[in-house]
Amino acid sequence: MENYDFGPNGGLIVALEELYDNIDELDLESLSSDFLIVDCPGQIELFTHSDTFKNIVEHFKKYFTCCIVYLIEAQFVSDPTKFISGCFVALLSMCRFSLPHLNIISKLDQLEISREILEEFCQLSESIKDHIQKKKGEYNQLCLKMYDFIVENNLVSFLELNYDDENTFDTILYSIDEAVQYFDDAEPKDHSYN
Q1: Phi–psi pair at 101, nearest 5 degrees
Q2: Average pLDDT value for the chain
Q3: How far apart are CA 116 and CA 75, in angstroms?
Q4: Does domain 8-26+35-181 have CATH number 3.30.110.30?
Q5: Inter-residue contact 158 to 121 (CB < 8 Å)
Q6: DSSP states of 8-39 as a string?
Q7: Model pTM?
Q8: If you ran DSSP here, which 8-state letter would residue 139 be given?
Q9: What is the distance between the alpha carbons of residues 49 and 187, in angstroms, rounded to a whole number?
Q10: Which pLDDT belongs to residue 191?
Q11: Mean pLDDT computed over 105-121
Q12: Would you say 122 and 105 are in contact if contact means Cβ atoms under 8 Å apart?
């Protein structure tokens, strides 16, 4: 960043461009694990304003079956308008990469929230719309239209990630396997009946 006199976002974009320019140096063929996780910073500019990250994903697709896992932090559940904005970022990544896609509400272990409210958000229930209508804000009508668009087109849903609940990890792993059709490629077991 200092060499180019860039801020954090500019520095990240240059770092991604540098990665892509040298991507053939990554020995992806030698990886033997079932998963390769690429954790990306949350700056939306990295995949909206530049094709570099999309090109990196396209390169990975040569070696792996890929799935986008979009995380939204649990704090978004405390503000319905913020949550709807997060839903649109999820839609943006779905459109940008055209890959199997999962949305996850993360860090639920760090937020005191009732099970009922969490399910309302995960299922995009009508009560979210009610919360938006009750708030006073200049963009409430826009937010309501965005909510209607998401719900009417059944475009976004969320899984839960709670560090204190191992079942949420199992559900996510199973959902990823299902999204990439992992079990369709698995070798059948030999059931010899002699």
Answers
A1: -145, 135
A2: 84
A3: 16
A4: no
A5: yes
A6: HHHHHHHHHHHHHHTGGGS-GGG--SS-----
A7: 0.81
A8: T
A9: 41
A10: 45
A11: 81
A12: yes
Report residue 129's pLDDT band, with 50, 70 and 90 as the boundaries.
confident
DSSP E strands in 42-147: the ranges are: 68-73, 101-106
Structure confidence by residue, pLDDT tens digits, 11-51: 888 888 999 999 999 888 887 776 778 888 777 878 777 89
107 and 74 Cβ atoms separated by less than 8 Å: yes
HSE value, Cβ hemisphere, 13 Å, CA-based, for 47? 22
What ranges do the domains of the chain cover? Answer: 8-26+35-181
DSSP 153: T
Q: What totals of helices (H) and strands (E) does the chain contain, helices first?
A: 9, 3
Contact 39/71 with Cβ under 8 angstroms? no
Give the position of tokens 């779905």.
94
Q: Which of 44, 52, 47, 50 is nearest to 22 (CA)?
A: 52
Q: Locate tokens 């959902």: which residue?
A: 175
- What are the structure tokens assigned to 61, written together? 């697709």
